Amino acid sequence: MCATVTHPFATPAAAPLLATRLGANGVPAFDISAACAGYCYAISLASDMVRGGSAEHVLVVGVEKLSSVTDTSDRGTAFIFGDGAGATVVSPSDEPGIGPTVWGSDGEKWSTIQQRLGWDEILRRWEAEDAGQTVDWSDAQAHDARSASTLAMAGQSVFRWAVWGMAPVAQQAIDKAGITAADLDAFIPHQANMRIVDAMVKQLGLPEDIPVARDIAETGNTSAASVPLATERMLREGEAPRGGLALQIGFGAGLVYAAQVVRLP
């Protein structure tokens, strides 16, 4: 299961090719498009599949190449986005290792993070240019078809939504897992913005000794890859304990969000 919004082909998906390259040709394989929440969405789906018996082991991959969809002249996004990939395997366990997922969407804010123009409109304008017509791309804050295909973000609107809307979602995930914030061994939020992370920590009232992922300072915002990348680093460096409880949350374009408490491998 591959969580990504930057696979360069609308079809076929990235997952079947990845499965074949891993020597697993023939297994079910598909992509999901939930932007920065994609990994947490995929963890929930994988957990349900294993619990329901439709799969025994599920490889979940969060991967993005945001450099391919970033307008390097856009001061609001060019310095934020990065490339990365992370993966985990969800398998049967004698004890629950993935708590209930709290997830949802807010389509009213669909335009706050989006490709500047849809491909249908870009193709229509290309055809007009090929016919010798003068095409104005300024309505998409773009110079040409290349920049029209990049991401645009209403930074302040997204910031306010994340700061005030995502802490309650994270708290619900803690509550549904049947624990308190003091029981957590790590907090691994999507790496969108350092101030968003700090605001969530404060609103959740997390104890000062709980490790918090702030990998954006080194990796940038890698969308669906940010949570698994941060998880791997925290485990590798001993910042988070293996077997400990971690609260993870992803949120982004859609707008979509998902959070769950997991037991670290």
The radius of gyration computed from the alpha-carbon positions, rounded to a whole number of angstroms, is 19 Å
Overall structural class, as computed from helix and strand content, comes to alpha/beta
What's the end-to-end separation, in Å?
A: 19 Å
Order of helices and strands: EHEHEEEEHHEHEHHHEE
Spans where pLDDT lies below 50 across 5 or more residues: none
Main pleated-sheet profile: 4 strands, mixed
Number of helices: 8
Helix content: 25-40%
Beta content: 15-25%
Widest sheet, order of strands: 2-1-3-4
Per DSSP E runs of 2 or more residues, the count of β-strands stands at 10
pLDDT averaged over residues: 95
From the spread of the alpha carbons, the general shape counts as globular
Task: State the assembly state of the protein chains.
Answer: single chain
Quick summary:
This protein has helices at 14-21, 38-52, 119-130, 145-148, 155-176, 194-204, 216-219, 226-236; strands spanning 2-3, 31-32, 58-65, 83-90, 102-105, 113-115, 151-153, 186-189, 245-252, 256-263.
